[in-house]
Amino acid sequence: MNFHPFLRLANLLTFSRLLLTLPFFFFFRAKLMLPAAIIFGLAALTDYLDGIIARKQGVTSFGSFMDSIVDKILVGTALISFYLFQSEHLDDGVSLIPIWMVLVILGREVIVTALRILCVAKHGEVISANRWGKYKTTSQVIVITISLVLLVFFENSQYVVQPHGPIYFMMYLPLVLTVASGLEFVYGNRKAFSV
After folding, report:
1. How far apart are CA 19 and CA 62, in angstroms?
2. Residues 6+ apart with CB under 8 A from 94
3. CA 78 to chain centre
4. Tell me, what DSSP letter sits at residue 167?
């Protein structure tokens, strides 16, 4: 088996982003917000760099698929972390973002990934992310990054750490783009999913 395609620089950056997910979750859960924010920033940077490198070297089906999966894992880890976040300013069972937001965003990702796998199984082709999918991912990363910066500087502020605070309201942008891009993905590729 030829492993050379898997060892391209763009793919190695994608795998490094996956490896950064675990320490990000660990630091966030330990309420070490600065290292968590730095790690998430590094992961976001690898996403940006592997995109540039892949376009120069040529985008592969494997790289495109794995990049999308790893993005979903990183964003999903951050959203779950926000949901699990506890503070003296939050009542028991209350989070920075509600579980329904997490479920809607992750539900869309599961559905789109399942449809991509179905398309690969039926046609042998990977459906690449379109511009709406890229807008969605960009908005998710930007809002999570801003939220992490707020937590670094204002973790003990009741104005930031509250159930309907700035993080909650900012999350509506990626939420709307996530749902819209999911609907657009399904509609735009309906022929590929037909029997």
Report:
1. 18
2. 163
3. 8
4. H
Helices vs. strands in the chain: H and E counts, helices first: 8, 0
**What six digits make up the tokens of 188?**
């735009």
Q: Detail the DSSP E strand segments found in 48-114.
A: none
Cα separation, 166 vs 180, in Å, equals: 22
Tell me the residue type at 59.
V
DSSP 68: H
Say what the pLDDT of residue 2 is. 47
Collapsed DSSP state (helix, strand, coil) of residue 140:
helix
User: Which of 55-59, 68-72, 106-110, 177-181 is predicted with the least confidence, judged by mean pLDDT?
Assistant: 55-59
Res 3 pLDDT > 50: no
Nearest to 104 by CA among 185, 46, 37, 177: 177
Contact between 162 and 146 under an 8 Å Cβ cutoff? The reply is: no
pTM: 0.86
Please state the three-class secondary structure of 15-63 as a single string.
HHHHHHHHHHHHHHHCCCHHHHHHHHHHHHHHHHHHHHHHHHHCCCHHH
| CA triple 82-86-89, angle to 5 deg | 115
Q: What is the DSSP letter of 165?
A: S
Distance CA 181, CA 176 (A): 8
